[in-house]
Amino acid sequence: MIEVAADFGSYALAVGMLAFYWMLLRFWPDLQKIDENERAEDRIPATFARTTLDPIPMPVFGGVFDTLRAHDRCFDEAIFLGHARNVYEMVLDAFADGDTLTLRQLVGQEVFKAFHRAIAERRQRQEVLRVMLVGIKEARIVAAEIDGDVAEISVRFVAEMIRSTLAADGAIVEGSPEKIIETHDLWTFSRKLPSNDPSWRLIGSDEG
């Protein structure tokens, strides 16, 4: 009886081990995917994790986008938002650096005049504007329309940045060189239809 019990115990142990290895082989690809995803999330800086992973809401504004595609088959809302985010960062950098050549290529005439005037006044006061964009938390299309042969799309940006204005002697005139602030901006981009130039120019900005 003792030998039979021992043989039965060995048999049950062997069956248990086979079942365990079968389960391990069955679910090993899924476990690898979970582990890879966890490692990927660990590599993403916390500041940009939500912006990078979350889908951007994409409302539909009647037939505006359909009309845009009729003139430009390559038009895509997500690609447009990607370019808008790049322009947002480039305009901020160019304005802070007083780079009017770059600004002229990115903004409309009226906006350029306002930027040029502000840069000139800043130089006259011998002040320095420092802007560091920490990250864009949200970039969302909130309006779109076509008026005649001009298309306009408005984008609401929510961003985190460090912004300060320094006097010639280094004294802080405005802002803080260390404090991160959240900004809300509403930028309107425009382009003519039809046009061989697919670029959109900033024609208006306001606090959103």
What string, H for helix and E for strand, traces the elements in order?
HHHHHHEEEEE
How many angstroms does the end-to-end distance come to?
84 Å
- Roughly what fraction of the amino acids lie in strands? 25-35%
Determine the fraction of residues in helical runs and give it as a percent range: 40-55%
Radius of gyration (Å): 28 Å
Let me know the largest β-sheet: 5 strands, antiparallel
Total helical elements: 6
Unreliably modeled segments: 1-15, 17-58
How many strands in all?
5
Shape: elongated
Structural class of the secondary elements?
alpha+beta
Assembly form of the protein: single chain
Mean pLDDT: 78
Could you give a quick summary of the protein structure above?
By secondary structure, the chain is an alpha+beta fold.
Keyword list:
208 residues, 49% helix, 5-stranded antiparallel β-sheet, disordered N terminus, 6 helices, 5 strands, alpha+beta
